[in-house]
Structures are given as structure tokens and as C-alpha cells.
Amino acid sequence: MKSKNFSRRDFVRLSGTGVVSNFGIGLRLPPFNYLADARPAVVAGKLSAGEVMQRIKENVHVPWVGPTVDTIKGGGSPDIIVTGITTSFMATLDVLQKSVKAGNNLVLTHEPTFWSNLDGNDGLTADPLYLHKLEFIQSNGLFVHRFHDHWHARKPDGIDEGWIKVMGWDKYKFDEARQVFELPSATTLEGYAKETKHRLKSDSVRVVGDPQLIVKTVSKGSNKTPKNGAFPLSADVTITYEPDRENDNVEWERDSVLSGQMRGFIIVSHNRLEEYGMENCANWCRTFISEVPIQFIPSGDPFWRTIS
Length: 308
Description:
With 308 residues, the chain is α/β, with parallel strands linked by helices. It contains 10 helices and 11 strands. α3 (93-102) links the parallel β2 and β3 (106-109). Keywords: Metal-binding. A divalent metal cation binds at residue 110.
């Protein structure tokens, strides 16, 4: 099925009537909890979605246990025959549409599909956007499965492995005692922020600290203020992401600088920090799945900025 444009008129029509054919108003679809005791159907010469997930569970080398967010989204069946696999940070409508166009009916997404951690539909069963996205998944026969908890639990962390590679940190010396990466040559905070922007292909990099601060060491922080407080003060710059609340995280970082600490902070979006971990996931999946094509489809930086 070709992707459909969802116009403003569609929103008004759906919201006004409260009735949508084939969308399943009021339908509650609990996520399929595909845990270790489930067994996929086997079709001779074909690879089912359940078999793909079984291989993932066997190769991630961590116990696949619940409760977990790593479940099916949108009600797809593990028995569907896989024609292609997409990995992505986020199963946005754009990623889903590109997957259909590419012939990929299994989408492995790191983050939620329906805008909340558990992908619940409370308060959404009459929401036009929720219904549109759910209908698109179902009418195109997509099997959307989240891969978050266990990809992070893998050793090494599958997301961090991709991040370290795209940032070039895999080529830097790692000081285990201080938990920092040492740059091959010193630069300024402004210079390293520009390098970060280039490497992450992001237009939404923000910086706290003196632009001329000399940077020799870097570390990856968190989106939680208490966790950032525990990160090594010996790092000249810490890259943090998706501030939990700007008046908590960012102001903690600013006061840290204003207190006299010679350090800087580079703030990136959650997407930019973890996107390349799902490209890493596609490469990893290819080591044990060869029957169907596997494609990383980036969801892209969600932000753009005006230029004065």
C-alpha cells in the first residue's frame, strides 16, 4: 500500500466525527511480549519475524526478560514472512514510509513508536495521528518491534559502540582511571563543538562554557543532572543529550562553569547521540541474518534552526 498524506482536513474530519472506518476506534492492542519461552512458526524456505527475533535474542547474549519495552508495536504477528529489515532510532512515519517503499516489512526501532516509553494507547484511542499511524502499520503488514533494553544491556552496549565509532573515539586513547578519552591534539571548546556538529550531521548542537577553553579530554554524559554530577571532573568537555529539564540540567552545567571549573558541555539531541547505534545494529544483524536485506534508515535530526 502506498503511503498516504495525512492532511489537516483529515485531522478535522477524524476528530469531528469520532468515527474512523478500519482504524479500530477504542481498540486496545497490548504489546506482544515475545520472551524467551515463545517459539516462532517455521515456514520452509522462509524467514518469519518471530525467527528474526529469536536470532536476535540468541546473539545479543543477555537474558531476554521482562518487564521490558522490547515488544511488538501496532499488533503485528510474529508469523509474518520477512521481506526486508529496517533498523532505526525511531519508527517515525517517514521511516515507516521509507521502509514500505524499500520492501522492508520488519522495523527494528530503538525508541517508542507511539510517543511514550511503554507505547501505551491510553488517551490516544480517538487521536487522529495515533489512528493514522496505527492504520499505516497494520494496512502495510508491518512488524514493528522495539529493541532498546537488551541492545543497551549487550556487552558492549550496542548504542555506545555506534556512538564511539561515529565520534572517532575508537581511535583515541581511553584513560580508564579517569574514564575519559584523550584527543590526539588539543582544540578549543568551540572547535570541538563544530567537529561534533559535523560528525553527527546535526544543526542543533548547543554549548555551555568558554568558547576558547582548551580541550584535551572528552567524556559522554547523561540526560540526568545527578548522573552528570558523577561524571569525571577531569574531562575538559562532557557531551550530554536531551536535557531532562533545561532548568535542571543546563543550569547545573552553567553553574558548574560559573563556579570556576574549567570545563565545557556540548548538548546534543537524544536522536543524534543514539542514531548511529542503530546503524551499528544493522551491521550486527547482518552477521547472523543473511536471508533478507537489512537497511539502516536514519530518522534524522528532528530540529532545525533559523540563521540570522
